[in-house]
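Colleagues,

For the teaching module next term, I've prepared a clean inverse folding example: a structure given as tokens, and then the sequence designed for it. I'd like students to try predicting residues themselves before seeing the answer, so please don't circulate the second half yet.
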């Protein structure tokens, strides 16, 4: 089960880079209803909607829950009917990450910290021709084939030192790797612990395993993030990318990015807790359907071979098998053919002479 949780988490992280730097993919209006609110409140709501739209945040956050579900079902070949476990997992994800949960949380924080002058400046900044062009690139979702082709390309023609430096600078500016690694480690551990909540020994092992693998997860997350950024900006010149990074390094942009990262982190942590509850229920249901002979927690520990007595399993089995056949003796010598060895068959056959 740990492997499945890691796969889900990795996909969740793969959706995140376009949230921090993404453009809208549709023209569907997400403006807040103005019924029952004052003109000032309506103006504030519209400005927040515009800010989230021009920076590409709205559409990305709106699609994230559906992307998570789609990835979970990706292994469901030929559009086969969902199994009960899959259906329950989908319900768990939908409960943990409601359709507008990320958007509502972001709007709530932006309303709480409303600053008309700051928001106007951000809207103007991200409405520049350079920002609009690059933000449009960030909205593209490449197919696996395109990504494989890009990997093959950079394997033959690695990016220059200048480009690598710019990509690292972008990652450092938006804090993507650090955010994704934190979400990844926390989610993996939370899901794994939920599946063994009544097994204290396994909980201890999970804590130790995650702690031991944290550095490796962080390193892998950073490599994946840098690769994603390199692909996203592959058609942007060094000079344009440098100018775009400078936009993100402006004080207001840094403030906006922190607001957004805090929202994403909080929503994922809350969602992980809700998913853990669902995973726990699924695990309990699975254990309830197991055979009464299935080892329980602590019953499947390896035998200490230094203290165990020499075992003679095979001779005991052979003797028991001969005895059981004799007990079932029905006067038919063909029953002897059920024995394991020629010697046993011959001994049995003597009874019929």
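(Answer key — instructors only)
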């Amino acid at each position: 089960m740990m492997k499945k949780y890691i796969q889900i988490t990795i996909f969740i992280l793969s959706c995140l880079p376009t949230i921090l730097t993404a453009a809208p993919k549709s023209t569907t209006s997400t403006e807040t209803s103005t019924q029952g609110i004052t003109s000032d409140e309506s103006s504030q709501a519209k400005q927040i909607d515009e800010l989230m739209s021009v920076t590409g945040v709205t559409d990305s956050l709106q699609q994230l829950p559906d992307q998570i579900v789609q990835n979970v079902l990706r292994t469901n070949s030929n559009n086969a009917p969902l199994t009960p476990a899959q259906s329950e997992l989908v319900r768990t994800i939908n409960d943990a990450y409601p359709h507008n949960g990320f958007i509502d949380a972001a709007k709530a924080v932006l309303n709480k910290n409303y600053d008309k002058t700051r928001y106007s400046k951000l809207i103007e900044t991200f409405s520049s021709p350079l920002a609009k062009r690059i933000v449009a690139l960030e909205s593209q979702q490449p197919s696996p084939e395109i990504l494989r082709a890009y990997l093959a390309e950079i394997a033959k023609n690695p990016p220059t030192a200048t480009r690598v430096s710019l990509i690292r600078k972008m990652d450092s500016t938006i804090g993507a790797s650090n955010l994704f690694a934190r979400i990844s480690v926390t989610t993996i551990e939370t899901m794994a612990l939920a599946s063994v909540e009544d097994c204290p020994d396994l909980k201890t092992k999970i804590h130790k395993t995650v702690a031991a693998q944290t550095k490796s997860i962080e390193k892998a997350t950073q490599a994946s993030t840098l690769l994603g950024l390199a692909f996203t900006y592959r058609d942007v010149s060094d000079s344009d990318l440098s100018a775009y990074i400078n936009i993100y390094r402006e004080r207001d942009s840094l403030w906006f990015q922190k607001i957004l990262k805090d929202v994403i982190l909080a929503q994922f942590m809350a969602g992980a807790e809700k998913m853990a509850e669902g995973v726990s229920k699924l695990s309990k249901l699975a254990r309830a359907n197991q055979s009464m002979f299935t080892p329980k927690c602590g019953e499947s520990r390896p035998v200490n071979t230094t203290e165990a007595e020499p075992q003679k399993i095979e001779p005991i089995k052979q003797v028991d098998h001969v005895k059981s056949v004799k007990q079932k003796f029905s006067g038919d010598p063909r029953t002897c053919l059920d024995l394991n060895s020629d010697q046993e068959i011959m001994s049995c056959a003597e009874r019929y002479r």
